[in-house]
Amino acid sequence: MKMVSRIAFANMKYHKSKNILTGVAIFLTTLLLFLIPTIGANLIDGQFAMVNELYPTWHALYRNVDSETASKLAAHHDIERSGLRSDAGVMAVSDAAIALMYLDEEGFEMYKMELTEGKLPEQENEIVVSEGILQELGQTGEIGDTIKIPYQIYRDSGLDFSEEREFVISGFVTDGESSDQERTYSAFISKAFLEAEVPREQILYRFLFQVSDAESATTDEIEARIEGVAEQFGIAENNVRINTEYLGANYVDPSIVPIMACIMLIIVFAGIITIYSIYYVSMGERIQEFGKLKAIGATRRQLHRIVLGEGFAVALFAVPAGLLVGTVASRYVFMGLLDLYGGDNIMVTTMTQLLKEGRFALYYWWIYVLAIGVTLITVYLSLLRPMQIAAKVPEIEAMRYRADQEDEGKHSYEMQRIAARSVGKCSRNRRGYQDITIDRLAKIYLLGNRKKSLITICSVAMTGIFLMVVATVLACANPEESANNSVLGQYEITPIVEYSNKEHPERAWNKLQQNNPLTEELKAQLETVEGVTHVESFSEIHVTSEVFGGDKEGILGVPERFWDVLENGIVKGSVTYEELKAGDTVIIDENLLYWYPEIAIGDTLHVTVEDGEQSYEKELEVAAIGSYPIGFTNYSYLIMVKEGVDGLGSCNLNYYYHVFASENYDPEVERQLEEVIASSELLQMRSWQESYETWKSGMAMTNGGCYAFLGILSVICVMNLINTMMNSVQVRRKEIGMMQAIGMSEHQLIRLLELEGLIYTAGALLLSLGVGSALGYPVFLWAKKNGIFSISQYHYPVTAAVLISVVLLLIQLVLAFALGRSVRKESLIDRVRFSE
Amino acid sequence: MSTIVEIKDLVKYYQAGESIVKAVDHTSLQIERGKFTAIVGRSGSGKSTLLHLMGGLDRPDSGKVLIEDNDIYAWKGDRLAAFRRKKIGFIFQDFNLIPSLNVWENVVLPLGLDGRKVKEAEVMDILERIGLADKKNAMPNTLSGGQKQRTAIARALAAAPAIILADEPTGNLDSRTELEVMSLLKNCVKEFGQTLVMITHDETIAQMADVVIVIEDGKVVSQS
Predict the structure, then answer these.
(1) CB within 8 A of A610, min separation 6: which ones?
(2) Which of A371, A785, B133, B221 has a beta carbon 3.0–4.6 Å from A34's, enabling a disulfide?
(3) Binary contact (A435, B77; C-beta < 8 A)
(4) What rounded mean pLDDT belongs to chain A?
């Protein structure tokens, strides 16, 4: 072994306590650098595997493509593989939705459909069905059997009258879980049937395709090519549907790289600060040692190598330990996350199943390499400064120097600077306190070591701030609140509105309002259900306008009881209840501006109001722009008060009955409400609970991942505090011994350490909570604007703030006690004599 | 004269590798109140260990140390610490000042730890006597060796302990400063009516003492 390596190794053993601390920091850094990308990659790979299992394989589809365009598209050089789908109509059965769909062979494969038996339909009277469909039809059958199917065909931009004919079953498909739950199915008919039933010029396809040479492309590049082809063929933007989930799962998404890099940088930064502060604090103790080495001929380069060698020797033990624990822990954490958020969540259940089948890996060789590489770089960066300090130490002065010795007066300025930096002694005179108390001792020590104290406070606060910011977003991402935003009240009852269905022309809103099932009697009946507190009626009338490109828009009528919500939601302009009641003025939802950015306050909208069988022209003035939850507006972007909307029509314009109940979910209330609305075929109901469940399962995985990451990051945060306090005792062993020799009791020592820790904790908490809270709000606004978790209301992360405060306070109290007690292990006289 | 310190059959052995060092070996002695007692002996004779045991800084393997008839090793932890700060003042060879405290704060530290109110005039009087009145705000790293040792003496005197234990207090000082510090220490102790027990291997200093105890291999070999 070379001499330099031998010294480095000997140093490592000699400075055992300091190197144990460093080792723990390196171990934690390695653990984090391994754990976070591994769990991140597990989640991403698991999600990708789940997407590949559940999602279709087409990269994109173009809607409303005619046969000729489809042929040309298929020949385009950017398109490698394509298929066709056309929705011919629906089966006319009540309560279930069964599509009659044409899919060619490629389309069938791209949708991942598989025949359990039989073949795809070729003849006009052939059909592929599922057991679920046969059940809904109330029939049975095998391959080759004939079944009778009532159906409606899409013709002339709507569903035509119901017909019935016999089909021969050519094949069977299985029903998915969601098919059974939601009673939504697809039956597959032949092209011959499609062409026989739908006039040729009305047949429109969904052109499903995969882009050529996609293997080496990023998702952005693939999307650009999809949009490029659409542009060449004049396909409108809203007729392009990109399968982003599938693309994300199978091709490189460039947006993931900076996110992962950012997370890794945070860990590296936290690791550097922790390891650096350990070396930084202990450097004062080592100055004499380096001076001796220089005096006997060690070059700067050799000193560099000694410091580096010592650091890497510690890493030699700590890194494998971190990888080993990380390997075991990542599996438990990931499996724990899946268990925690499994339940009814089909995505998580699928992921768990795929993991059991070994369809995606839990460990990745490149993460091991990455963790080792980045940890060693982190160790190197942390040692840079100590290496510089070691190399700068002047020989003779350093030999005289002892970290705990007071006669720095004899040393050069450079020497004093190094010493002061290391142990925090810098001033020549200081106006002191008349009396010395334990509180003042703590204050003097911390102020005398300002830089070290600040480094500790800032490094602990850095992770604290990050914790608070992420916790703010997570606190705002509350499934309960998202459900509140999605559904007003606990239940929402609406008429089934359907346009262009010849079989059900009465379902068009202008017809339905003439025979509206949302009557006052129904309302009264709903209010009699036990558990229902009240029912609020919102009305709606439809208008068309050139401003909206001829599309229909609804004007929502909000009852007076919700005037406060309406008024408080105004973000620009102003309007009174009376003005809205007059029916000539509207508030527009700010989301409308996304589609029609030219609309401004003060504009007059020329609209055609659809009032039952009649329609008339009207001018509406835009008085204000508002921002409202979806559950409040239900995507109606023009808003008035109910009296105003009701005045625009001559029929019953009640469109929503928002049912408010004493409890968010009560199965008995739901059952009774369902019974009440069953009196009309034209009513449907959705509940707060459904929305809550959807949000809950959607947020669960992300929240779990975030909290796991935050938890691990907190360990680094706490590690910094522990390290600093341990160091402050280690470095001051003699000083503390001296104070004990002249009468400091153990209680006083613990009190001193507690106070020092409290000041660190208070500083770190002030910064974490102060800056974290201040930064959390703009991040919340950003998340709100970008629709992350559908958050709408700011919530201060009280739990996180309390948790951070309590954990830090507890840790520092326990630590102060433990350190105070541990000092006893070494005899007082050994500490007084101590000079390492 | 009454006895202030009584040591009875005191034993302290250390393990050094495979051999046992008998630092204090069944030693008994008495120290009289108000006297300046010097303990002399060669390096490794056990004099420092004896002094540390006398001050309650270490724990003996057996035997007793009675200070003002109190068996100090019958106490532990905080009680012993409280006794130490009331009754014993220490002066060390390497000063052992607290580097983050200035001269004044170092001097009043034992009073603060004992919860006593600082009587400014009294402390100022001590500082004036030892010639550090103008350095009361100075930090230890700006003082000379002599000034540091004077600060350490002032600290020992400030709490007005009954006994001052000094472990070669002039060992790190040049000969001129050594004499200055010794005469200052002796005068102060006399003036404040305190008992001084000092370790030294310097014959000249030993001659200044009222009583000289010679230690060899952990045993008292003579007392005069």
Answers:
(1) A509, A510, A541, A542, A543, A544, A552
(2) A371
(3) no
(4) 82
Distance CA A456, CA A19 (A): 19
In angstroms, the separation between the Cα of residue A407 and the nearest Cα of chain B is 5
Residue A244: φ, ψ to 5°: -60, -35
Counted domains in chain B = 1
B118 touching chain A per CB within 8 A: yes
Q: Determine phi and psi for A404, rounding to 5 degrees.
A: -95, 5
Which residue of chain A is at minimal alpha-carbon distance from B118?
A: A435
What CA–CA distance (Å, rounded) separates A122 from A99? Answer: 18
**Measured CA distances, A620 to A584, A596, A614, A701, A781 (Å):** 5, 16, 18, 46, 32
Strand B195-200 relative to strand B163-167: parallel, antiparallel, unpaired? Answer: parallel
Q: Give the position of tokens 């904790």.
A: A761
Angle A365-392/A300-341 helices, nearest 10 degrees? 150
Smallest Cβ–Cβ distance between B141 and the set A408, A444, A743 belongs to A408
**Residue B130 per-residue DSSP state:** T
pLDDT value for A397: 56
The answer to which of A235-239, A535-539, B30-34 has the lowest mean pLDDT is A235-239
d(CA A86, CA A315): 62
For residue A428, list chain B residues with Cβ-Cβ distance below 8 A: 138-139, 141-142
- CA–CA separation, A466 and A599 (whole Å): 40
SS3 A738: helix
Structure tokens at A760: 């660190």
Please compute the mean of the pLDDT values over residues A594-618 and round it to a whole number: 89
Helices (H), A582-641: 592-595, 630-633
pLDDT tens digits, one per residue of A756-789: 888 888 888 898 889 988 998 998 888 877 667 7
What pLDDT, in 10s, does the model give residues A117-137? 999 999 999 999 999 999 989
From the CA of A726, how many Å to the nearest CA of chain B? Answer: 18
Q: Is A428 on the interface with B (CB under 8 A)?
A: yes
Contact criterion met (CB < 8 Å) for A742 and B85: yes
Q: How far is B147 from chain A (nearest CA, A)?
A: 11
Give residue B76's domain range.
Answer: 3-223
- Taking only Cα atoms into account, the Rg of chain B, rounded to an integer number of angstroms, comes to 17
CATH of the domain at B178: 3.40.50.300
A36-A38-A41 Cα angle (round to 5): 105
Q: In degrees rounded to 5, what are phi and psi of residue A312?
A: -70, -30
> In this complex, which of A428, A738, A740 lies closest to B142 when CB atoms are compared?
A428
Distance from CA of B154 to the nearest CA of A (A): 13
Nearest to B143 among A409, A437, A741 (CB): A409
Ramachandran quadrant class, B17 (left: phi over 0; alpha: psi -120 to 50; beta: rest) = left
Q: Do A734 and B96 touch (CB under 8 A)?
A: yes
* Inter-chain touch B95–A742, beta carbons under 8 Å: no
Q: For A662-777, where are the E strands, in sequence order? A: 683-687
Q: Looking at beta carbons, which residues of chain B come within 8 Å of A415?
A: none
Average pLDDT on B6-34 reads 87
DSSP letters spanning A131-181: HHHHHHHT----TT-EEEEEEEEEETTEEEEEEEEEEEEEEEEPPPHHHHH
Whether the pTM exceeds 0.95: the reply is no
A742 to chain B: closest CA residue: B85
pLDDT in tens, A267-307: 677 667 666 666 665 565 666 667 667 766 777 777 788 77
pLDDT at A493 over 90: yes
Residue with tokens 């770089």: A377
Residue A825, chain B, CB below 8 Å: the answer is no
Question: Residues A55, A48: contact at Cβ < 8 Å?
Answer: no
